[in-house]
Amino acid sequence: MWDIRLESWIPWRLANGNVAWGPIAQLGRATEPALEVVGTACPRPDFDGALHEFLIGLLSAALAPPDERAWRARWDEPPTPDALQAALDALPPAFDLDGDGPRFFQERSASDLADCDLAPIEQLLIDTPGDQGLRLNKDLFVKRGRAARVSRPVAAMALLTMQTYAPAGGAGHRTGLRGGGPLSTLVDPRFDAAGRPRAERQSLWARLWANVETVEQWSERTPAGAPDGPADRFPWLAPTRHSNAKSGGGPTSAARAHALQAYFGMPRRIRLEFGEDGRCDLTGRDDARLVVGFRMRNYGIQYTDWKHPLSPHRRAKPADAWLPVHPQPEGLGWRDWSALALRTHDAKGTREPAAAVVAFARRGRTLGLASARLHAFGYDMDNMKARGWLDAAMPALVATDERQEILSDTARRLADATGIAGSALLGGVRRALFRNPDASGGDLGAVRTELWDATEQAFYALMADVADPALEEQDALAVADRERRAFVDTLRDAALTVFDRWCPAGGLAPDVLRRATVLEARTFATRGRPSRPAERPPRLLAARREALHRARAPAARRRAERPRGHPTHAQGDDRMSESTGEAGAAAHGPAARNRSAGRGRRASRWWERLSDPRRLGACDAGAPPALTRDVLDLARVLAHVRVAAGEHPMRAAGWKTYAGTRRESDVGAAERPRLSEARFRRLLQTGGGEERVAAFVRLVALLGDSAHVPTLAEDFLAWMHPEHGDRVREHWAFLYYHAADAAPPQRSEEPLPTDDEDAAA
After folding, report:
1. N or C: which end of the chain has fewer CB within 10 A?
2. Which among 448, 127, 445, 182 has a CA at the least distance from the CA of 327?
3. pTM, rounded to two decimals
């Protein structure tokens, strides 16, 4: 017989960095610090998780502390290997992996399974493809034929992993005590909330014992009159309590077994088949007796109404039964933290952390520990298919019930805000990448995941500040409110960073309108901060949905809108007047042209200031002909400026409020632009020469012969520059759509000096 209490079947990770296979008793206090057990090194991560849970249950059964005082004594003074081995030997003979009697986690009677087919041993691995996957050749990532023969240590690990996390397996093949693929959470006091190790608590014993319950805690979950025999703790010691209703079977509730059976649940009727000696396919270690397969029958134990001490639970209504929490495809992050570490109550129901986490919140105050690490892990299952093994570490904070309410409320508000920002960010990325974002395919869920990851550190730092035990409750509320407001800035910056990584404006083709679309959508994220971020989360990047939408007209439409003989001034007057109303008609009618002709064709006095070499460069006789021509064209434009304005031309001609997310019919006349959007698009596409002069003259006339002369002059001269020209157009687009607060800084728009100031200069 191969007794797991005695055999060296666990790969221990030692403090000196080595891995040594040894018995369970090696967990006890080491004689040398270098030989202290600090972890396990199983060949698979799910083996590690299941083994940790099993060891916690085994220590609970062998060393059951009656109360917190006894628990504290074991915490301060772990047992020696000999003392631990003596406690294990006192347990019932329920830990033989082979032999004719009761077998560890296996069907007791071999005859009940004698007529079942022999299944390959690799099917004990939860992620092994099923019969349909093998038949259809769908085992692309998880291959068949990985393990035809395994050693007894590996078989023991695989067996307890399957029984602990058993997924759905077809008709009558029961799931684990917590359903298929449960989520487990363990408190790890060896590290503080920030993940820094505690030198005095680095043994694996500290991690396991921190999650061991006392007898008092068992009693709270054990109904009066519940059976308390060895078979009620280790179900394989008794004939199988099958769940086939046709044969008189039924479910097994917590009232029909001991509370410790939560660690030793046996939903699957399995019996291993052994072969000759050889080498294990998973570990490469030799064994005197390999395991080559197993037999299995359906209708094992069907567990109902159990609360596992290592899993968080939830319920929608007070009258409902508690349900275990399961991992989700998006993974584990800080959005799940409050549900795993705190009691929460909201419209979705009530959530409770694992009993081990609740116990640590109380124990931590007596142990002088303000925080620890919370280790969450489990399978993400899609019915019978394993989508992945999830593993995450997060803070476990020691806090009073009152402080937990503050932490829970704060975490919920921040998670809501980040969720809204993530959805808007995802919509923004789609708008930037696809011309028809609603019809675009592909999974861009990683965009939101990146946002959650980018804000994780800030969130946990905020929670630690609020949980500071030195704060009074009222002070904690004030800190929470202040930190929530600061988190808005962090969220905004993180959203911009993620957006830039997915949609870099510098990597786009030199399409001004397209680049302006991306940049305007990005920079709008700097706006939209609510006055009360704690109550109303920010709509970061929400305006991305329609940013410069109307500036992206197809080429055919732009050609159709261009008047015949473009860019002549006279042929475009009527079109502009239609959208600008009476003001536009007055500015562009025959009378306006006559007034323009009577201005004497002279430049305004601002021309003399702009012609200063410090502004325009050395514009003298040695200047390039092209620059000289641009300066002369600028003089022709400035000759039409009669009034010095104090704001950018696009501020005066564009939308008075941001209109990217609204239809023009929903906007009042006072908020509409003086320059129509069709005319604005043609303005952005204006080239050089006479076309540029005509376009700028029309713009000045539309603004009532007024303009901010320094801005107009600088932009006119840079309009055809191969690099700066695009920047000017982008900046104009920001201002036209009233997104200037979010636009990158272009220049300071100082008000023009008065006539007296100018005369003094």
Report:
1. C
2. 182
3. 0.70
